[in-house]
Specification:
327 residues; alpha+beta; T-fold; seven-stranded antiparallel sheet; three-stranded antiparallel sheet; 8 helices; globular; binds adenosine monophosphate; binds magnesium ion
Length: 327
Amino acid sequence: MDTLVSINVYTKDLAADPGIRRAIAAAFAEMARLDSLMSSFREDSEVAAINRCGATGGEIEVSADIDTVLRMAQWAAEISAGAFDVTVAPILRLWGFGTDSAGVPAPEKIAACLPLVKFHDMALANAATNRTFGNEKSRVRFRQPGMAIDLGGVAKGYVVDRGLDALVQAGIRDAMITAGGDLRTIASPMTSGQRYIWIRHPRVDTVSNTTIGAEGKNFFGRFRLDAGAVSTSGDYERFFIKDGKRYHHIIDPSSGYPATEAVSATVVAKTSVQADALSTALFVLGPERGIALADSLPEVEAMIIYHEREKLQWRATKALQEKLKIF
Ligand code: AMP
Ligand code: MG
């Protein structure tokens, strides 16, 4: 998925715990398996096969993993009124972020692709809840030829969740997995109360946590979290500058152009797949509508950084605001 994944496991005595290396290997293996299904960067992924079906319109059988991710995607699309929409793929292709041919597409091309961005025209059959009634596989149907999906806004979160499951299954009780802007953590009493989540400053290059100064220089803020998931979407992750203007990878599906309301959106949730989908959704919605949406969801916290009068401002849900230290 074109990102760096790291797994940290905390233990008092590595020598006394030989299962740890095996647990980490199992987690990486599971995450690699999912990468080969969901990556938009591989011709041989399941997503690529789904998109070949979308090109002609029609129906295709999908794995349980893809089914789970697509259900989360459709939930995020519904509650965000389409701000999050994995069928934005045809527009993403025009922009070409992350490829050598990234550039501003002709407005006619964007206008021609926009009708294909419509999550309601992607139907999921055989709900996961029905699976116990038969062996029928889940299926996806595209109602318009030319449709395609891009799981870049949600798949990393799912992969982090499954990696953490693999660790827990192997007996690990204290760990953190990070994959680019997505992370999930569990703490045992050994580290409980000691873990900080640092929110990147969107306009300062934060090389690694080794550059954290005592006062958190280079970071925008921090808060404490023992168990849960955090995802950040930012306009600084994948972008190019043309004629002094920043064009980044998070598209507002209503316009086909990069969303302009936010600079970064951070979401805290129970699972990484939910935090991931919501951070992308909130980025598109912006501070007003985004924080209102987070406030309406149980066990979801959020902070959005945005531009106002040439300056960076931020807004957060109440519970997160109380925990946040802003530098
Ligand atoms: P994230 O960093 O999780 O916000 O994901 C950004 C990625 O999500 C982009 O690189 C695209 O692959 C994809 N994406 C862009 N815009 C949208 C959107 N409006 N809804 C869903 N996915 C999107
Ligand atoms: Mg996301």
